Structure formats: structure tokens, C-alpha cells
Amino acid sequence: MASPRVLAIVLAGGEGKRLMPLTGDRAKPAVPFGGIYRLVDFVLSNLVNGGYLKIVVLTQYKNHSLDRHISRTWRMSTMLGNYVTPVPAQQRRGPHWFAGSADAIFQNLNLIDDEQPEHIIVFGADHIYRMDPRQMVAQHIESGLGVTVAAVRQPRSLADQFGVITADSSGTKIAQFQEKPTDAQGLPDSPDEIYASMGNYVFKTSTLVRAVTEDAMDPTSRHDLGGNIIPKLVAQGQAGVYDFSRNEVPGPPGREIAYWRDVGTLDAFYEAHMDLISANPAFNLYNREWPIYTLQDPWPPARFVGGTEGVTGHAVESMVSDGVQVAGSVERSVLSPGVVVGRNARVEGCVLLDGVRIGQDAVVRNAILDKNVVVPDGFQLGVHDKDADLKRVTITEDGIRVVAKGTTLELP
Ligand code: ADQ
């Protein structure tokens, strides 16, 4: 049997308010992650590794660096009719930019019309994960349902950030769906967990087109897939659920455990980095059987400089990108290209984005420093309570210091 025609739509228009200041002038899917990637690279790698090579990426909010990244990184041969195309909001019909994710699709029905797919994958762009989407598409087709929603167990305390699913007795159909409830019940076998929608869907084309078209006529709708479209299809008995924990992705030495992380908050973003560098990384970026693709500028290899006095430049339990120069001490940290750590400086538990400079004898602990932040010689961050008085420094609930792009830290 010929494989079904599938179009993939990646929703990449989210604002990511809770990731401020990292989303100050870039869309959330363009936020750097893991040294050399951007968030959007994870969903696109999953789709491309799964063989889905017709992909439109709907962008909207502060889309400049996102569009540039996608165009540069994800250029594919169009000879076989394959593409990854960023579609910025302003090209769409009507005088207004789109409202929610359902409206974004409604405004782009022409792309669906051009391609005439039988099924449409609609995936978010904000998550760190590895997933073979073919297994979800196969279940969706076999079920004959209008939509299938991918789901994963999450702590019940996070229920108000997710669509919460109750499966029927078969485990594959959705009996109830509540978008971001404040009073979610835990699972019967695990009261502290809920079954959360991953914001990844596979639709029958006719179901999606009808649903977003009807929704567009409804003045009371927020035009949101999770808030409006999915609950309606659940009520019509048209929604299935795909259990992400069953997803198998190849990789040495056998199969990888299903890893999925929503990095919607600064603390989650930080924790996901720590997952990369733990002794047995929960998420293995080194799996060549299911690579995560990106584009790197041609930096020289990282170098570690010996000092005549004090410490010799070194990094332990860390990931260090090309173009990094370290003359101090780096522990439990992820360093993007072009970071410089000065003599005798100490960097511990940090995520340093491109071009950050840490001065001599400086100490930086438990911090996320956005691009080109400069920490002057001898400065201490993450050491004292008085960091709260610093300009352009955000302190998260977990006490992580986050410094906005381009800031040169100064004492108050
Ligand atoms: P949220 O992430 O809160 O919840 P939303 O803000 O709509 O929902 O973002 C979903 C995806 O769509 C993101 O990738 C975002 O970048 C993108 N997006 C949002 N508005 C867009 C627009 N107008 N145009 C293009 N892209 C847009 C959703 C679901 C929940 C589910 C969580 C999982 O609603 O049910 O549990 O995702 O994280």
C-alpha cells in the first residue's frame, strides 16, 4: 500500500511570555537550547527523521531570527517536492494577524489545498523530545478517528499548564479533555500525576478543515486548538489518544526511553539543560540513529588554557561548544559557541549562550546568561542575595539568575 499523503504543520508562533527575558526579542521556538540548537530544531528533526518532508512552519511573534534560522538550517532539496517553509503571519488573508493556533491554520488553508494531504500532523515547536511520529500516525490511521492527541504523564501540580486527558477504558480514545484545569484529578494508578496533551496532533484532513472553518465563524471562540477544537472533537467522539511512553526511537545500545520536556518556564528550561549533563543523561543528544539537526557557524574547536598561577582552564560534567575558550573552572554547565571564561573565573551550574564573556576571577552560579552578556572581572552572580537589586537580572522561583541579552553586569 502506498504511504498516505501527510503534510506537517509546525505551530511556531507562540510568544513564550514565561520565558522572558529569553523571549524579549525572539520567538519561543527560536530560543537557543543545548549549546548549539534552537527549540524548533527538536520537532523538525523528529519529523524529518520520521520521513515527513513536507513541512510548513507557522511563525508570528518576533519571527525574524526564527525565520532566518529555519531558512538557513532547514533548506532541503526541493527536487523531490520536499520543503521546510517558514510562513510568517503577515502573508495571510484578511487584515488581522491570527489569534490562536486554530486561526493560524484557518488562515493557511490554501497550503493544505495546494498539497491535498490525507492526514495532517500539527505539532508544537516548544518542546525538547525525541519521538518517531510514524508510530502515532499509524495508530491514528488505524483508529479511523478525526484526530489523535499525543499524551504524556506529568506532575499534577502542572495541570493548569496542559490539556488534561481522561482516556476511556480502551486507553486509546479520549473520554474527557479539560484545557488547563485548576482542579484536575490525579490518575487512578498515580494520584500525583495527570495525563497531559503534548500539543501534538494528527488530524484527518477533512476533520481539521471543517473544525477550523466552523471555529472561524464562532465569535465566542478563542480560536485555539487545545481550548476550542480538541474539546469539540472529543464531544463528538472523534478524538483518540496516543500514549507517548510507547514510542520507540532507535539508538545505542537499544531503545531510548521516551523523553519529553515542556520548557515553558525558565526553571524548566534550566532543568532540561541539567538533564543533558547528568551522569546518565536523561536526554541523549549523542544518539546518531535519530540525530537532532541544526546549523553551526564554523568556529574553531573549544580550547582550555593553562594559567601560570591559579587554576588551569577546565570543564567537568559540562557540554562545551566549538569556539569556547576557558581559562577558569567550569562545572555542571552548558556553554554555547564563542563563550570566554577568564582566568581563575568559576562557572557552576550555568547555561551560557553565544558570546558570553566571564571576566577574570568572576564567580557565576546557577544562572542562565543570554547572548553576549558580559560579567566583569571579579563580579559575583548567584553568590549573594543582593543580586535582586541588579538591573536586567530576573531571579526565578528556584533561584536561578537570568540575565537579558547583551547586558554588561554592573554593581547597583
Ligand atoms: P499552550 O502551549 O499553552 O498549550 P499555545 O500557546 O497555543 O498553547 O501554543 C501551542 C503551540 O502553538 C506552540 O508551539 C506555540 O508556539 C504555537 N502557537 C501559539 N499560537 C500560535 C499562532 N497564533 N500561530 C502559530 N503558532 C502558534 C498547548 C495545548 C495544551 C497542551 C500544551 C502542551 O493547548 O493542551 O497541553 O500545548 O505544551
UniProtKB/TrEMBL annotation:
Gene3D superfamilies the UniProt entry points to: Hexapeptide repeat proteins, Spore Coat Polysaccharide Biosynthesis Protein SpsA, Chain A
UniProt pathway: Glycan biosynthesis; glycogen biosynthesis
Source organism, top-level taxon: Bacteria
Signal sequence, renumbered to the chain: none
Positions of the Nucleotidyl transferase domain: 8-276
Molecular function (Gene Ontology), one example: nucleotidyltransferase activity
Alphabetically ordered keywords of this record: ATP-binding, Carbohydrate metabolism, Glycogen biosynthesis, Glycogen metabolism, Nucleotide-binding, Nucleotidyltransferase, Transferase
Binding site for alpha-D-glucose 1-phosphate: 163, 179-180, 197
Record domain Glucose-1-phosphate adenylyltransferase/Bifunctional protein GlmU-like C-terminal hexapeptide: where: 300-403
Enzyme Commission number(s) of this protein: 2.7.7.27
Entry annotated with the keyword Ion transport: no
Catalytically driven reaction(s): alpha-D-glucose 1-phosphate + ATP + H(+) = ADP-alpha-D-glucose + diphosphate
A Pfam family: Hexapep_GlmU
Residues flagged as site, Could play a key role in the communication between the regulatory and the substrate sites: 60, 97
Family the entry assigns: Belongs to the bacterial/plant glucose-1-phosphate adenylyltransferase family.
Subunit structure: Homotetramer.
Function: Involved in the biosynthesis of ADP-glucose, a building block required for the elongation reactions to produce glycogen. Catalyzes the reaction between ATP and alpha-D-glucose 1-phosphate (G1P) to produce pyrophosphate and ADP-Glc.
HAMAP family: GlgC
Official protein name in the record: Glucose-1-phosphate adenylyltransferase
Source organism of this protein record: Sporichthya brevicatena
Name of the coding gene: glgC
